[in-house]
Design brief:
Length: about 80
């Protein structure tokens, strides 16, 4: 079951990449790089969460990083 979810996710990422890539012109190199990097990171996170659903999500990472800063600012 996880294999089909992974394949489906990668197909969807491929379709999103194809749609976005075709709308960007050749001279928009920075935008193309941003699309490629963000889609790659999203695909990796999606596959990791399919394989191991108990992994903490990105919001928990942000909370862990900024909770000490928030506590310092409260004082």
């Amino acid at each position: 079951m996880k294999v089909w979810l992974t394949i489906g996710t990668l197909i969807m990422v491929g379709l999103i990449w194809w749609y976005e890539w075709s709308r960007l012109g050749r001279e928009q190199r920075k935008e193309r790089a941003a699309v490629a990097i963000l889609l790659s990171l999203a695909a990796i996170l999606a596959v990791l969460l399919i394989i191991n659903p108990e992994l903490p999500g990105p919001t928990q990472l942000v909370n862990a990083l900024f909770r000490p800063l928030g506590k310092m600012m409260e004082k």
